[in-house]
Amino acid sequence: MNSVHSTSGASDHAVVVTRVADTQWHAVEEDRTVGRGDASRRPDGRLFISIDAWHRPVFDRIADAMLADLPTPLYTVLDEADHDSRSAWERAGFAVARREWGYRVSTDPQATGLDSVRPPSGVTILPAGEAEEGPLRALDRIIRDEVGATVGWHTMPAEVLPRPAGITLLDLSKYAVARYLDQYVGLVRVAPLTRQPRIGLLAVRADRHRRGIARALLAQALGSLHRSGTPSAWAEVDESNAAATALFEGIGARRAGSTLELVRR
């Protein structure tokens, strides 16, 4: 979480910032904790930091301490609508590296136009929880290698859940899969969050692109949510991903926010 809310308050000279753990910093004024900083390393190796402080001088003190202690490049993520936080990070030398659009997606197949979508010839869509573990893990590795060799995982959704080293599939029941003949060729992951499920990943093997498989996977995932009484889902798309943008906007998804990823090199 990044937050900075005002320009007054804590007296600048009285604030002392201490590194209290490998990944944590505390700002203290007269025995009161007035701000915190945290660092975490993503599965792709990048180091992200966050700062929670109510006053500009405290934010700046914590940022200075963290930048002195940590190697670059450093990254942070914030809501594009949070102008105070963006200004604070830019003072610390961070610049925008990428933007991610947040989409609210109706699950109603008549609203999305997915009611008439059928899988391409030879393709079967396996609902969430029905895929075999071995082939699904193999597909996940193939897709990750393809993403890493092309656009890079840094273009994937900014909020990446930590995972044990080397483990990329934690809950197989969240994945619906496209099978072509006897091979798994695409997947969609839906996190069943209480307020609004999140489409965390939608991907198809490179050699099966442009065949309508991603659209069929999306139709299955959203249709399943609709039948369970869920009216909408959430998805994030990197603004440089023209194909994904066209797919979601083509089914009537509405932009409902944006996230910025900033970097200091």
Number of helices: 6
Please state roughly what percent of the residues sit in beta strands, choosing from under 5%, 5-15%, 15-25%, 25-35%, 35-45% or over 45%: 25-35%
Q: Which class of secondary structure composition applies to the elements?
A: alpha+beta
Q: Which spans have pLDDT < 50 for at least 5 consecutive residues? A: 4-10, 158-162
Word description of this protein:
- This protein has helices at 56-69, 83-91, 109-112, 133-149, 213-227, 242-250, and strands at residues 16-21, 24-29, 32-41, 47-53, 74-79, 95-106, 123-126, 175-180, 183-191, 198-204, 232-238, 254-264.
- It is 26% helix and 34% strand.
- A 12-stranded mixed beta sheet has the order 1-2-3-4-5-12-6-11-10-9-8-7.
- The chain contains 6 helices and 12 strands.
- Residues 4-10 and 158-162 have low confidence and may be disordered.
- The protein is α+β, with helices and mostly antiparallel strands and 265 residues long.
- Strand 1 and strand 2 (24-29) form a beta hairpin.
SSE diagram, text form:
Layout: E1 16-21, E2 24-29, E3 32-41, E4 47-53, H1 56-69, E5 74-79, H2 83-91, E6 95-106, H3 109-112, E7 123-126, H4 133-149, E8 175-180, E9 183-191, E10 198-204, H5 213-227, E11 232-238, H6 242-250, E12 254-264
Parallel strand pairs: 4-5, 10-11
Antiparallel strand pairs: 1-2, 2-3, 3-4, 5-12, 6-11, 6-12, 7-8, 8-9, 9-10
